[in-house]
Design a protein that fits this description.
The structure is a homodimer. By secondary structure, the first copy, chain A, is an alpha+beta fold. The first copy, chain A, has 3 domains: 185 residues, 2-Layer Sandwich (BirA Bifunctional Protein, domain 2); 134 residues, BirA Bifunctional Protein, domain 2; 87 residues, 3-Layer(aba) Sandwich (Rossmann fold). In chain A, 39% of the residues lie in helices and 20% in strands. Chain A has an 8-stranded mixed sheet with strand order 1-5-6-11-10-9-7-8. In chain A, strands 13-12-14-15-16 form a 5-stranded mixed sheet, sandwiched between helices. The longest helix of chain A has 20 residues. Chain A starts with 17 loop residues before the first helix and ends in a 9-residue tail after the last strand. Chains A and B meet through helix 1, strand 1, strand 2, strand 3 and strand 4 of A and helix 1, strand 1, strand 2, strand 3 and strand 4 of B.
Chain lengths: 437, 437
């Protein structure tokens, strides 16, 4: 045993101390709870899948980043998102599912990127998708912002804004400029406008040999501002008659109306014509979400509507809509910005400290009573002195300590110490649990 | 898109339909809840670690089964259990942890075994461990069965028995027979006694060239039966004076006494001298748990005490005790035996069915009210006829359907249909949530 292996983990992998893990888990629990409140069903797909499944669509960056290896005769990969496994799942389990199929999945995905600040190689995604059979009503496009709204109200990171756009509006607009072939590249450039600014966007568009007048039209288009109603009005009255464009504008108008029926605060959502979300995946409504006071965090919850989830695996036409929260990165950013901080070092409601080893029956009876009432109670079994015992309670940030010595046992009481105020009181064992309710 | 990839997953990987996933998750939640009630802290270590870390101890089967691959310059592996990552974690984070360190981790582990019935290549382990700094009081050896007891009471799979032994008793016993070098192999054979029977154990021991009298002594030793008190008495009075043996008997006696202080039913735990648990890892108390009515399932929760968790990574002496539930295998077995079955096809408390698309404001107000009260409410947005809508509710096994048409809107009511009894009633919107409490 002389040669020790240095204990370490890979860069780009988040591993937390217990107090941070408690905080992280409380976020996961809140997200899960909102997903379930809106009727989503849980799903858990394998971490390892056949490479041909996961890479059916992928190319470029994904192929480079994926963790891929052989085991026996199998060419295997670790999932790099939760969408491809969902597509495979829905195609495979189609006869057993009820549509619209609403599922959530919260799990780790893996991308072997170069490690850099804010990038993780292993990270949690918290996804929901609604999958329709052949079609999916537009009202789901409004339910999604209602879910984002419920989540970030619950998570309570401060004011946030859900930015909404429609890919048909964008696609139709570029078609009307005879820039359909360039649309993907233009959208990619527009997508960066918050990061690089309008001047750089203009320069990059010029580099693409788009003529100056069209660039001006593009820029004045994405400059359209105002209330949602005003933006819709501008979009309707700017003389573009492309069919896709008009369909998109109508969808956008309808979705915005429906969102208000969901009871969202007016200042929590807005049309934003600059967001495009990815390149060719989304085909309708798209979303991004930002913390108003921390724009530099970028979008903290994004997604949109797509025409067909499972095209690589089946002929069924299964349109869907979904969002994803990259929770590992978000958690890391929120911690760094001081938006969240550790509050609980332990989950327990109380620590029971026996003064000696004699009265274990009584000590454990007290512990059992508390746990039977759903309380989290730990017992310090160490034989060290009182000072050590209280130090343990302090280090774990325990709110209440229950001290039990022979006096307490004889009188069927406990001494309950509030660790915040320092106050202590003698409590009858029969009324103890009520102290925590 | 002509070439479709056939959607499938690898053999040996469990993937569930939503109704089974709901059942599985409810088991995870119950286990987690008990772990937290006993004061355990959550932990989540990376799925991917350096191979030299994960294989610091391993050899033989583990090396063959592990998923190992290179990415860039790194030799990486997927974790094959949660114990080795815990050891690395504790060694690495030592200064930041409070001891005794009680942690739980529920997560997937990976073993590339040949696929066979009941064996999984990716499976959940639900682990707890208590790690002491230099030492760990014996009372934790009794708390562990109390936790196992609380879990299987909560999970409610029927009567179970926690079988308890002590490795010092076994080791000391074999030393007294001058069979210390053979002990590991003898223990391995004894470990199989439930599977292969006493005669085969005898035969295998004979094959090891152990003389007949010693075999008889071994067999009469593991044949010791009776109440826990009677077994302790037999162990004390069988003339063995080996120091380790006597220490083990004393520990066993003390642990059994302490367990009764934890309030466990007498028929839920027993000393069983045949269980040995692994070969060289455990050094004190060991546990197995069986369902009394389904012995063939084997142990459903096992563990024990070990002298030093982190020997491969650090010089700190960190003794511990822990248990593990292999939940994927257990779930699969329980389903197959019909001990558990799917009861909920959905998590929702109610499905709201609008009769038309006109009254969305009212429909969504009802949904919001329910969700604000913590209820899980889904809305069926499809525009198909009433028959289709009720079919959807049926397929999801929804307990209550709320029907909303224009009459309901005018009167500020809803029609609430109990899907089990078929009864329906008109309910004022203000008193609706009370119907679910």
């Amino acid at each position: 045993m002389a040669n020790k292996v240095q204990p370490k983990i890979l860069p780009g992998f988040m591993e937390l101390l217990p107090e941070d893990q408690i905080l992280f888990n409380s976020m996961v629990d809140k997200i899960r709870s909102v997903y379930e409140k809106f009727g989503f069903l849980p799903l858990d797909t394998p971490v390892i899948e056949y490479s041909e499944i996961l890479l059916a669509k992928a190319g470029g960056e994904t192929e480079k980043q994926i963790y891929r290896f052989n085991k026996g005769d199998n060419d295997l990969s670790l999932r790099f998102d939760l969408t491809v496994p969902l597509a495979r799942y829905v195609a495979q389990r189609y006869p057993y599912l009820t549509f619209p199929f609403k599922r959530y999945q919260i799990g780790k995905v893996f991308r072997g990127e170069r490690p850099q600040k804010g990038r993780f190689r292993e990270f949690y995604q918290c996804d929901i998708d609604v999958i329709g059979n052949e079609n999916l009503p537009l009202v789901y496009d409004a339910e999604i912002p209602a879910i984002i709204y419920a989540i970030f109200k619950e998570l309570d990171f401060g004011p946030f804004i859900i930015r909404i756009n429609n890919r048909k509006v964008l696609n139709g607009f570029f078609k009307s400029l005879d820039l359909t072939d360039e649309a993907t590249e233009i959208l990619r450039i527009i997508d960066k406008i918050d990061k690089i600014g309008e001047d750089n966007v203009k320069e990059e568009l010029t580099d693409m040999h788009i003529d100056a007048q069209k660039i001006e039209t593009i820029l004045s288009f994405i400059r359209i501002k105002g209330s949602n109603e005003e933006i819709i009005k501008s979009l309707k009255n700017n003389g573009i008659n492309d069919e896709t464009y008009l369909e998109g504008v109508n969808e956008l108008e309808e979705v915005i109306k429906l969102i208000s029926s969901f009871g969202l605060d007016k200042d929590a959502y807005t049309i934003d014509l600059t967001i495009a979300r990815g390149l060719d995946y989304y085909t309708g409504t798209v979303y991004e979400t930002n913390l108003k006071e921390y724009p530099k965090l970028g979008s903290i919850c994004s997604g949109g509507r797509y025409e067909n989830l499972t095209g690589y695996y089946t002929d069924q036409k299964l349109p869907g809509i979904g969002i994803s929260i990259g929770l590992t990165r978000l958690f890391s950013q929120l911690k760094e910005e001081g938006i969240i901080s550790t509050t609980k070092k332990s989950l327990i409601d109380t620590l029971i400290v026996p003064l000696d080893e004699e009265n274990m029956d009584y000590v454990l009876e007290v512990a059992n009573r508390l746990r039977d009432k759903g309380l989290k109670a730990d017992v310090y079994y160490g034989t060290k002195g009182m000072k050590q015992k209280m130090k343990y309670a302090d280090k774990l940030g325990v709110p209440y300590v229950i001290v039990i010595g022979s006096d307490e046992v004889s009188n069927k009481v406990v001494t309950l110490k509030n660790m915040v105020t320092g106050e202590q009181e003698v409590v009858q064992i029969d009324s103890l649990t009520s102290k925590f309710c």
